[in-house]
Automatic annotation (TrEMBL):
Domain Sulfotransferase: 61-305
Active site annotation, chain numbering: K70 (for sulfotransferase activity)
Keyword set, alphabetical order: Disulfide bond, Glycoprotein, Golgi apparatus, Membrane, Signal-anchor, Transferase, Transmembrane, Transmembrane helix
Organism of origin: Cairina moschata
Subcellular location per the Swiss-Prot or TrEMBL entry: Golgi apparatus membrane
Protein name: Sulfotransferase
Family statement drawn from the similarity comment of this UniProt entry: Belongs to the sulfotransferase 1 family.
One Pfam family it belongs to: Sulfotransfer_1
Topology versus the membrane: Single-pass type II membrane protein
Superkingdom to which the source organism belongs: Eukaryota
Disulfide bonds: C264-C274
GO CC terms of this entry: Golgi membrane
EC number: 2.8.2.-
TM annotation in the entry: none
Amino acid sequence: MCTRTQRLQPLCPIDGQFGPRGQEEIALRALQFKRGLLHEFRKGNATKEQIRLHNLVQQLPKAIIIGVRKGGTRALLEMLNLHPAVVKASQEIHFFDNDENYAKGIEWYRKKMPFSYPHQITIEKSPAYFITEEVPERIYKMNSSIKLLIIVREPTTRAISDYTQVLEGKERKNKTYYKFEKLAIDPNTCEVNTKYKAVRTSIYTKHLERWLKYFPIEQFHIVDGDRLITEPLPELQLVEKFLNLPPRISQYNLYFNATRGFYCLRFNIVFNKCLAGSKGRIHPEVDTSVITKLRKFFHPFNQKFYQITGRTFNWP
Ligand code: A3P
């Protein structure tokens, strides 16, 4: 059973920063739990005076979850946001992958960031960054020492998850769509269709190699998205370490919700939440011969990925 002491505690370095103990300190400590005032700031309900008074700033991200789409990017961001020193950008900003946004300049990007205390770090996630050609150079120009998080899942499962998302979108618009098998396998050659985006995205090593032209491998941390589903805490602890954050996320903050079939988030006694229903869709059944073919196809790329990253997965 969880005890009250297991609840998120404010960071030690923060403790000394607010001068003599008093009412103000209590209010600021409450902000550390990311409810109350900070929540209002995020919703845009704060006055300029309140922002100034609390010394809140909009900071460029110190870390970015660059992908991979359907790897568990939302779960990772929301779970990291449990940490009192982390403040998430709620929306995918698509600054570096969208030319129109990028042309608006870095101040536009900074203004999209949530309010935070100067000692906190901001994290954003836009999974399209991982696969978009121009992004590594653009991020490098902003901050060459930024920390980059990549969350991956077994490539065939990820591709099917990707397909499922698109399929659901089509169904919502009452449109018909091809079966996964038809898209993933080239009918002329009967080989894996590498033109299909869901397949291409799962060739992790190809994309990573482009990033490595700008950033050393030490600036990346690979998160096991399959393990984040079944056993999130150890994965989050590895990220805390990578981000040089003191360990603050505990088992108390993560509880398994049998109805959802996933771990959900507990911020404190009163506030908990599960991810939206669009996360954790039921995948359509896929022909086993197609799955076997895809797994065989991804195998050599996976080996290369393990070699480059130093993180091995037991993907088939
Ligand atoms: P599925 O819908 O295929 O199950 P992303 O946020 O990058 O789009 O990734 C979505 C995936 O996050 C989901 O894929 C789901 O499996 C995974 N996920 C990981 N942890 C989760 C959690 N706690 N709640 C819901 N989905 C989670």
